[in-house]
Write a structure and sequence with these properties.
The structure holds three protein chains of three kinds. By secondary structure, chain A is mainly alpha-helical. Among the domains of chain A are: about 160 residues, no CATH class; about 150 residues, no CATH class. Chain A has 24 helices and eight strands. Chain C is globular. By secondary structure, chain C is mostly beta strands. Classes of the chains: A mainly alpha, B alpha/beta, C mainly beta. Chains B and C meet through helix 11 of B and strand 1 of C.
């Protein structure tokens, strides 16, 4: 392994100057996953750190399934994957999951959270349509900023602006954060005290693109003119120009009174995607997607992408951003590349002393499940795996999974959306320990439930194996088998109850709660 | 662990800080006090009880939701055209007068400092509640923890067997505008909120499982999870296990919420209203080591019939607050417990045609009593009609800095969001030293 | 209805009496003063007769003797000719809400938030009776309020009414209760959203034949932060203990603060308001509102002239003379 990597690095070193362009980036022809490992490994070598070994197949399929389709794998999926000796089975798994309709649904949920967190609205219906068509990130950006409310399929995109139009400061700050990875809200009242990049002109320059937007009779509208005025800290009143974060200014064309209509928002979209201006847009989404799959951004915090806060791997970020632009902002391509990297597929356990800094990506991060990942996984885990349609009938299986997702939405509302440094509250532990919904619903033992199957199994060993494999996606270790065996044996007088409690302990285990 | 120099919010190495040290302070700062504090009988051992009292500071917030009138409570203007019909009465502290609706508090003025000079500018319920519960307004990308969450963090123990932030808010009006919130501190410090029942949600074992099994399945869970945690350094992961470890202790604390556990004499003292009962339970909770309890009394929003509304609500506040201060004092807890009255704002001096007063954040009052406070004092002054602050203007930040200082917490202490340092109060905010004991 | 005189005042006028057959008024105000106002004498604004130590909310006039009551709990006797205070009596331990004069002018009744009605001898200020029949607390443990009292035309009966809509009719000769009536629709307790109350009976009037007793206030309110309920008048055939009519106004919201019967009993006039004011003419025969008129301000008290053609009204920031 190590030698292989050394050779690769050496080759890259030799070929780099020949293949790369004037900007000294690694060749754009390289697959994404190789570029990722090239830069990550180079940094590890500099620090003399040996990364964690690759995750086991069982670990990998669980991580990947949660990340790509938002749930744990089914028993059959796990068994099939573990049994396969195909050397390209990980690539095939990635492609199978990414081509399933569940990928679109999960991606829509994740992007909806990014776009609409903290509002009461959702653009998920729009995202489902556009992602099913393999719509690119710049397309989504355009549709959100310039929504077409006349197209019934796309009109829910308008929620992005509608939920924020009554507070233009918030709209300005959130657009800057979500699409450009910068938090300029401090610059609202004064030039940023610590970051030379951000002046009041930036905040109000960005606000000028939105100041003409308003809601009228429930529909979004935009005036052709309108000035943003602000007072500097020295008390001077100024009018804001239409100015992008790069400092580039749009001069409104007021010479023509007749159409084409001048839309400040359309100008922002146009300008922010121009060569020389689009770095913010491309780097921000690369960093966010990276953060989603690695649990830590190349730039942290995610909305502090400015000159005083450089990325941990600047060349990698540049490479990925360039790749994204060159391939039409295709997030699927980016995601596929990230999850095929070795860096993504490392173990999350670190037994070699001091834990490496997270920005080295030497060991996989333990990531709390999102509310939907957790709720759907719980629903799936308590389902008797034999009642699921087989993988050979993917449409039927997906239909069933869709049903589970629908029934998980309510439960998902009991959980908090994790942010960085997420802390599990005692409310969640109390809910699982004493909640009626958990007891009556998740731990029910009729019909198609796992507990119904477990109850009928003859031996405790069989029950332990099936429960572990269904819920945690792996077989028990010896110590675990012994621990669970003793627990069940002590309750031999009430085996159904005992098995229910075992299932509870597995569902509430840290291993289930996290993507590791 | 080396500091993440590359990702400082502002690039200053001063702010680079080991996150684990940062988390560690919460544990290290807490009392090394091993007794299970859910057992009230601990308090019957005088030595233990006094030890506990020395160790821990706590806070009860009487949240006068909707906005109580300063003119009918702490800053009367009798005879002014804006003064309304109530008289001012002298208190036990010479020179301090309060509304005649508060005769009991007038006798107990020595415990209390009145701040008459709040100018907080925000006059809508949602914005005002956010400001006055958090000491500042959220940034678009940063949600701040409120007072309760900060105190849970600063005064509670990470492995506490009692809840560390309890909030009562039974009236429905304004509740969603003033939720308890842990902001960036995360749900570990989120409040245990009681909306409809005096028993916290999910605190009682269901009948479908016996107590031994309930306990042992939790032990089984813990054993499985501990193995998983080995070699995996994550504060989120730690918090998950800690949350489950607190469950059994919290379940044992359900008696703390049971008002009938108090002798009739004590219950009578707090009176027959829901507010009285909840404040009494708040005392039970802080006595058992809960660092922060909010009791919301809604709804004071007297746009019509201000005087009649205050005739109902102020005597209740007067009675219940006096009972609380007496009770805390008799138990030796008042020196360690800060009692706050606060709202999202006060009410307009102008009396409208419905004989109401409207929202007013320009010149209004709050009180601090007990722990760390110079009792029998008044800070700040409003003009003759109560329309403006003329002395000692105080904003939300100064008020919060003062509260933190009274509880022995450095108001400039930094929290870290990622690697961005976030001080408890805005940089440069000074507590009001003159009213600190 | 037409305003023919409009006198702006500082504060809020809560109580008003008219010197019979004249344009001279006395009114009590939120600036603690009792004023004397002669509308006939042009441009001479209100003159101060004297002062209480809080809002002046009750006034009675017996010849040249005026008796005022206020939130300071005092009753003060004034000679309106010499403009001198004659005596002051500490009449109630809490706010005096209203003062009423017996038809023969010999007795004055006062009600206050101590929930007691007291009858006084006009001539010497001695107390005759204490009438106790109203609970000090609402069913929800909060202080109640005794808002209003009024004498029957024959002077033998007196009615009092409180916050929760409880009405007692008393025998003025013995000081004993004769009848109790309930108008719970006048009181709103919000047990869920806001946990406080609003409302109460604010006005009472006997019909000229003494058969009917009208009570005024406000209907049930959704949002008790505001006077956001329909104006309400209930009319009782009080000796039978029956409710004869119930008028829930379809045009105006707010409290009916004052009620006066037409001298012949043709209608009863209610005045009141919320943020705005109104007058309601209610016909007892047809059980309908004859007229519903917007007033220039929230009305707290008013008086009719002898022909019921002119209204003298007192309220928020104004004294008005109107022609019907």
């Amino acid at each position: 392994m190590r030698i292989q990597r050394l050779i690769l690095t050496f080759l890259a070193f030799l070929l780099g100057p020949i293949l790369s362009r004037a900007d000294d980036l690694l060749s754009s022809a390289l697959p994404i996953e190789q570029a990722v490992d090239h830069f990550i490994d180079a940094r590890l070598q500099e620090t003399g750190l040996q990364p964690a070994p690759p995750a086991s197949d069982a670990n990998f399929i669980r991580r990947l399934t949660l990340d790509l389709v938002g749930r744990i794998p089914t028993l059959e999926e796990t068994r099939t994957f573990l049994a396969s000796s195909n050397t390209s089975k990980r690539v095939e798994l990635v492609d199978r999951l990414m081509h399933s309709p569940a990928f679109v649904r999960h991606q829509a949920t994740e992007l909806d959270t990014l776009l609409m967190k903290g509002t009461r609205g959702s653009v998920r219906p729009y995202l489902l349509v556009i992602l099913a068509e393999k719509g690119s990130w710049d397309r989504i950006y355009r549709d959100l900023m310039l929504p077409d409310e006349n197209d019934p399929k796309l009109k829910s995109a308008a929620e992005f602006l509608r939920q924020r139009v009554r507070d233009l400061d918030k709209l300005t700050a959130e657009v800057s954060s979500i699409f450009f990875g910068v938090n300029i809200s401090c610059a609202q009242c004064h030039d940023h005290p610590l970051v030379a990049d951000w002046k009041q002109d930036h905040f109000f320059g960005m606000k000028a693109f939105f100041s003409r937007t308003y809601e009228s009779g429930g529909r979004l509208a935009e005036r052709e003119t309108g000035l943003v005025k602000f007072k500097t800290t020295k008390g001077v009143e100024r009018s804001a120009q239409l100015m992008f974060l790069t400092g580039k200014v749009v001069k409104p064309d007021t010479s023509k009174a007749a159409p084409p209509k001048f839309s400040a928002r359309a100008e922002l979209v146009k300008l922010s995607l121009q060569p020389g201006q689009r770095d913010f847009f491309a780097r921000a989404i690369v960093n966010r997607i990276w953060h989603r799959f690695f649990g830590y951004g190349l730039v942290m915090p995610l909305d502090q992408m400015h000159s005083e806060n450089p990325p941990s791997h600047p060349e990698l970020l540049n490479w990925l951003a360039r790749d994204l632009v060159e391939h039409g902002y295709d997030l699927r391509r980016l995601i596929r590349g990230l999850v095929l990297s070795r860096a993504y597929a490392r173990e999350s356990r670190w037994d070699k002393g001091e834990v490496p800094r997270p920005n080295l990506f030497a060991v996989a991060r333990v990531r709390p499940l999102t509310p939907m990942q957790l709720a759907v996984s719980l629903r799936l885990a308590v389902t008797d795996p034999q009642t699921l349609p087989p993988m050979s009938k993917p449409e039927e299986l997906d239909k069933r999974l869709q049903g589970l997702e629908a029934s998980a939405a309510d439960l998902a509302r009991s959980f908090e959306q994790p942010g960085d440094d997420f802390q599990v509250g005692v409310g969640e532990a109390l809910l699982f320990s004493n909640g009626v919904a958990i007891e009556k619903d998740l731990l029910a033992d009729g019909g198609d439930r796992l507990l119904n199957r477990l109850r009928r199994l003859q031996t405790d060993d069989e029950a332990i194996d099936l429960a572990m494999q269904t819920i945690l996606g792996r077989l028990p270790r010896d110590d675990e088998r012994k621990l669970l065996g003793n627990y069940l044996k002590q309750r031999a007088d009430r085996p159904a109850e005992a098995r229910r409690q075992m299932v509870w302990a597995l569902l509430t285990s840290a291993e289930f709660r996290f993507n590791y | 662990m080396a500091p993440n120099r590359h990702s400082n919010f502002c690039g200053s190495p001063l702010h680079a800080m080991d996150r684990r040290n940062f988390l560690g302070t919460a544990v290290a700062g807490a009392a090394a006090f091993a007794a299970d504090m859910t057992q009230l009988n601990v308090l019957q051992h005088p030595a233990l009880a006094s030890e506990l009292k020395k160790q821990q500071k706590r806070c009860i917030l009487l949240w006068l939701a909707g906005g109580a009138s300063q003119l009918e409570t702490w800053d009367p203007k009798p005879g002014a055209p804006t003064g309304g019909p109530f008289r001012a009465i002298p208190t036990s502290v010479p020179g301090i007068h309060i509304s005649e609706l508060m005769p009991q508090m007038a006798k107990r003025m020595k415990h209390t400092c009145i701040l008459r000079s709040l100018n907080t500018r925000i006059g809508d319920h949602g914005g005002g509640a956010q400001l006055m519960m958090r000491g500042r307004r959220d940034e678009p990308n940063l949600k701040y923890p409120d007072l309760g969450a900060v105190l849970a963090r600063e005064l509670g123990r990470r492995d506490s067997q009692v809840p560390d932030y309890v909030s009562f808010y039974f009236a429905t009006e304004g509740r969603s505008m003033a939720p308890g919130t842990a902001g960036f501190l995360g749900s570990r410090y989120a409040p245990m909120e009681l909306y409809t029942s005096m028993v916290p949600e999910n605190i009682r074992r269901l009948d479908s499982i016996n107590d031994l099994d309930h306990k042992q399945r939790a032990e089984l869970r813990e054993l499985l999870s501990k193995q998983f945690a080995q070699g995996r350094a994550s504060s989120s992961l730690d918090s998950h296990n800690e949350a489950y470890q607190r469950v059994r202790g919290l379940m044992a604390s359900d008696k703390l919420f049971d008002a009938t556990q108090e002798p009739p004499k004590v219950r009578d003292r707090y009176g027959p209203t829901l507010f009285g009962e909840q404040v009494m339970v708040a005392r039970r909770l802080v006595e058992a080591g809960v660092p922060f309890v909010r009791v919301a009394r809604a709804w004071w929003d007297s746009h019509g019939q201000n005087f009649e509304t205050h005739q109902e609500l102020v005597p209740e506040l007067d009675h219940v607050m006096a009972a609380l201060l007496d009770d805390l004092q008799e138990r030796g807890l008042l020196d360690h417990t800060l009692v706050i009255t606060l709202a999202e704002f006060g009410r307009t001096p102008k009396i409208n045609p419905s004989l109401g007063r409207d929202h007013f954040a320009t010149a209004w009052s709050a009180t601090l009593s007990g722990c760390g406070i110079q009792g029998g004092s008044v800070w700040g002054k409003t003009d003759a009609k109560g329309e403006h602050v003329v002395e000692g203007e105080v904003g939300a930040a100064e008020l919060f800095a003062t509260i933190y200082r009274a509880l022995g917490i450095n108001p400039q202490k930094n929290y870290y969001v990622g690697s961005r340092p976030v001080p408890l109060t805005e940089p440069g905010t000074k507590p009001i030293k003159a009213i600190l004991a | 209805m037409k305003a023919i005189k409009d006198i702006p005042i500082n504060g809020i006028a809560f109580a008003l009496v008219r010197v019979p057959s004249s344009n001279r008024l006395l009114f009590g105000s939120s600036d603690f003063q009792v004023y004397d106002l002669d509308l006939a004498a042009d441009k001479s604004g209100p003159k101060v007769l004297g002062a209480h130590q809080s809002y002046v909310t009750g006034l009675a006039l017996a010849g040249t003797l005026a008796i005022s009551g206020g939130y300071d709990g005092r009753l003060i006797w004034w000679d309106i000719e010499t403009r001198k205070q004659i005596r002051a009596v500490e009449a109630h331990t809490k706010w005096i809400r209203k003062v009423a004069l017996s038809p023969d002018g010999k007795m004055v009744a006062s009600v206050g938030d101590d929930m007691v009605c007291r009858l006084w001898n006009v001539a010497d200020g001695k107390m005759l009776y204490e009438l106790r029949g109203h609970h000090e607390r609402t069913p929800h443990h909060f202080p109640s309020m005794l808002f209003v009292c009024t004498f029957a035309p024959d002077g033998q009966s007196l009615a009092t009414a409180d916050k929760v809509g409880h009405i007692v009719v008393w025998d003025t000769a013995s000081g004993k209760p004769i009848k109790t009536l309930e108008a719970p629709g006048m009181y709103t307790w919000d047990p869920v959203q806001r946990k406080h109350s609003i409302g109460g009976i604010r006005a009472l009037a006997f019909s000229p034949d003494g058969k009917y007793l009208a009570a005024g206030g406000i209907s049930k309110i959704g949002n008790v932060d505001h006077l956001d309920g329909k104006a309400r008048i209930e009319v009782f055939d009080w000796q039978k203990g029956e409710k004869a009519h119930e008028h829930i106004d379809d045009k105006f919201k707010g409290l009916v603060e004052h009620l006066v019967f037409h001298p012949k009993g043709d209608w009863v006039l209610g005045g009141g308001g919320a943020n705005d004011g109104f007058f309601l003419f209610f016909d007892l025969k047809t059980k309908k509102a004859l007229r519903q008129e917007k007033a220039a301000m929230h009305i707290h008290a008013f008086a009719l002239d002898e022909k019921a053609e002119t209204i003298y009204a007192a309220g928020y920031g104004k004294i008005q003379k109107l022609e019907v």
